[in-house]
Amino acid sequence: MLYRTAGQFKTSYRADQALFPIKQDAFLLGIILICAWVVFPLTASEFTFQTILTPILIYSLAALGLNILTGFAGQLSLGTGAFMGVGAYACYKMITLMPWMNPVIAILLSGVFSAFVGVMFGIPSLRIKGFYLAIATLAAQFFLVWLFEKWAWLYNYNASGAIQVPNLDMFGIYVSGPQASSMTQYYLVLFIVSLLTYLCINLTRGNLGRTWKATRDMDIAAELIGINLMKSKLTAFAVSSYIVGVSGALFVFMWRGAAEPNLFDIPLSFRVLFIAIIGGLGSIMGNYLGAILIVGLPVVLNTVPSALGFHVESALLEHLNIMIVGSLIIFFLIIEPHGLNQLWRLIREKLIIWPFPH
Amino acid sequence: MELLNKIFIAPFVDMVAAPDFLMQVLWEGLVSGVLYSLIALGFVLIFRSSRIFNFAQGIMVVFAALTLVGLHEMGVPAWISVALTLAVMFGLAVSIERIVLRPLVGQPDIILFMATIGITLFLIGFGEIIFGGENKQMITSELGIPTGDFVLEPFGGLLILQHIDITAVLVAAALVVSLLLFLNKTRMGRAIRALGDDHQAALSVGISLQTIWVLVWFIAGIIALVTGIAWGSRAGVSFALEVIAYKALPVLMLGGLESITGAIIGGLMIGMLEKMFEIYWGAPLLGGNTESWFAYVLALVVLLFRPQGLFGEKIIERV
Fold first, then answer.
1. How many Å apart are CA A256 and CA A92, to the nearest integer?
2. What is the end-to-end Cα distance of chain B in Å, rounded?
3. Minimal Cβ distance to A136: which of B125, B246, B253
4. How far apart are the first and last CA of chain A?
5. Under an 8 A CB cutoff, do A127 and B308 touch?
6. Which residues of A touch B115 (CB under 8 A)?
7. DSSP H helices in B18-108
8. How many whole angstroms separate alpha carbon B296 and alpha carbon B248?
């Protein structure tokens, strides 16, 4: 009823290939965007910004980057955390070497460095496939985290070995560091995430995206129809690492405020991988759904017992959290291996034909 | 020149000058290599029979060791707690097969891989709640494992061999031999290998997928317990042990995901080479702690020349 597509005729190829060929989809997206740009910022508290809104956006951006590589180009990577680290450290170095630099430009540029590193570690993918490649990306993970720790130039030789985000301002408003307000940071993150998501949607629909999908579905067949595998795989690594790097810079500059090398260790990589897989490999929206689940769940689990009047020790609660997240991952994989995005797609199909069964 | 000297000449001069130290380094490397091999063996068994990349092997080691120590702390005699731990590992194998694997049969590899990460998280949370997170002492002497050491004096130097390490090497060797005998000589073992070769064909001649999967996960559990005892008696039992799973992954890459020989030889190679690299090159030139990535980089370089690992089955692709 609500999702009836009857009467929406397409009279040109252009209209048929529009980003949202069904009006209701565009309408829904409009509501979500209004919520994200207007409603949430007006109603959210400092706590909500810090624990839910900003991290969800940053994690979904990281998952989007990983999804380009794993979901669209079919190259499984376990080194996402390290590439986020490259972005963060690159941004830190740029900001401290060139303090006059606009923070947004620095964040967007820091992705270039991680894209470069990503391509370097992507070269083995030309020879190695499947799980062998996944383990090979772990080489990047462990090597880079070791480098963050040992290469003192990266953190400007300070004694703690951690990077501390300085106060940065843009047109007189603080955007990062201790003095920045959560709302400014949220808007900045939202702007970058929206921009990159829009670019990614179009990228995956275009020539490059189709090349990636062909490589994912069967690389030999793709090669036979004239796709240059080297180009396809390496561009996937570059684009993916660029996005992941930007998300890493946002992660530290707009949310955490400080970072130690082990922040980018393997649990972070797995977290992003969970988001991408639970959301749905090969989808864009899935990353957001997955991030909402994975970031939101611990917050909910932390607040529910006290709201119900139970007193649970925080250590026990933390362990219960890990347990529940683990079982939920298995649960979601069993009910829908293609992720939350697929669930939404099924619901949407049901809605389109509802109330008639056929 | 100074740098070249440090890379190409000085380490070898050191090696020749102090052969006893070199032997000590190699021995230490060998012992950790044996443990890497054991973990890799658990991976290989499960991968061969079900194409599941079992990320949970590392946490199974921790879980088995913690159960053993936890049972003993409750006053159960040492050997009975070993038997009980084996029973727990069997229960774990059955429930993993029932709850996780059975509904996911036939899904893409990456989904099954994610499911094993889910199992890992579950076991971490579960284990921490039941056994607590602090480091525990492995019940080495209660199990009758000797704890002294041999002191040898080759070339007039000093070489210390811990009894625990020698026991670990011997037990691991015995375990590998009996595993190979089991796989090659018994009905069950042949069924496991048949399942690894071709699922459908194996099913059609009446091999039960479910039984074999439980069996394989149980064997992986036994291997995990042995690894847990051996490693735990060196470093204590805690969740930090989980990181040795990451050590076993490059072993798999180097040896090939399907090869038992590859897992053993790869593990020994990586154990010794990474120790040598750390002592002679890593610590003086790169600021140490290179063990975290050396194995990966080594495996990566090998894979560039042999994409299926040193002993893996040749990859034949058809369109």
1. 13
2. 52
3. B253
4. 13
5. no
6. 329-330, 333
7. 19-50, 57-73, 78-95
8. 10
Residue A341 lies in a domain: yes
A135 near B CB under 8 A: yes
Mapping DSSP to helix (H, G, I), strand (E, B) and coil, where does residue A259 land? strand
Asked if the C-beta of A281 comes within 8 angstroms of chain B's C-beta atoms, the answer is: yes
Range of the domain at A243: 48-152+164-353
Q: Is residue A249 part of a domain?
A: yes
Cβ neighbours of B122 in A, within 8 Å: 322-323, 326-327, 330
Question: Which residue is associated with the tokens 């462990």?
Answer: A142
Contacts with A252 (C-beta within 8 Å, 6 or more apart), sequence order: A88, A91, A92, A163, A165, A258, A259
Residue in B293, B304, B319 to test binding to A, most A beta-carbons within 10 Å: B293
Pairwise CB contact (< 8 Å): A139 & B296: yes
Rg (CA), chain A: 21
Yes or no, beta carbons of A326 and B253 under 8 Å apart: no
Is omega for the bond preceding B284 within 30 degrees of 0, making it cis?
A: no
Q: Which residues of chain B does A273 touch, with a Cβ-Cβ cutoff of 8 Å?
A: 114, 117
Nearest to B304 by CA among A160, A127, A337: A127
Asked, for residue A3, whether it belongs to a domain, the answer is no
Structure tokens at B49: 């029979």
- Out of A124, A128, A224, the one facing B319 most closely (by C-beta) is A224
Nearest to A207 by CA among A177, A228, A189: A228
pLDDT digits (tens, 9 = 90+) for B52-66: 888 888 888 888 988
* Residues B81, A236: Cα–Cα separation, whole Å: 51
Here the CATH number for the domain that contains residue A299 is 1.10.3470
Residue B309 CA neighbour count, 13 Å, CB half: 30
Tell me the per-residue pLDDT of B197-246, one tens digit each, with 9 for 90 and over: 777 888 888 888 888 889 989 999 998 888 888 888 777 777 777 777 78
Question: Could you tell me the maximum CA-CA distance found in chain B, to the nearest angstrom?
Answer: 67
**From the first residue on, what is the mean pLDDT of each consecutive set of 10 residues in chain B (319 residues)?**
73 74 83 86 84 85 88 82 90 90 82 87 87 74 71 70 80 87 87 81 86 89 88 78 78 80 86 85 74 82 77 67
Q: Where are the alpha helices (DSSP H) in A20-160?
A: 23-34, 40-43, 46-48, 54-67, 80-97, 103-122, 130-150
- CB neighbours of residue A119 within 10 Å: 17
Q: How far apart are CA A229 and CA A220, in angstroms?
A: 9
Distance CA B292, CA A137 (A): 14
Torsion of Cα atoms, B42 then B46 then B52 then B58, to 10°: -20
Please state the domain count of chain A.
Answer: 1
Residue A112 to residue A239: CA distance in whole angstroms: 9
Of B129, B130, B143, B131, nearest in space to B229 by CA: B143
Q: Residue A232 carries which side chain, given as an amino acid letter?
A: S
Q: Is A348 on the interface with B (CB under 8 A)?
A: no
Confidence at residue A236, expressed as pLDDT on a 0 to 100 scale: 93
Strand ranges, E, within chain B: 149-152, 159-162
Q: Are A289 and A32 in contact (CB under 8 A)?
A: no
Contact A272, A63 (CB under 8 A): yes
Tokens of A118: 């990503």
Q: For residue B291, how many other CB atoms are within 10 A of its CB?
A: 17
Domain boundaries of chain B, sorted by first residue: 2-305
Distance CA A184, CA A167 (A): 13
Q: How far apart are CA B253 and CA B309, in angstroms?
A: 6
A73 inside domain: yes
Global ipTM: 0.83
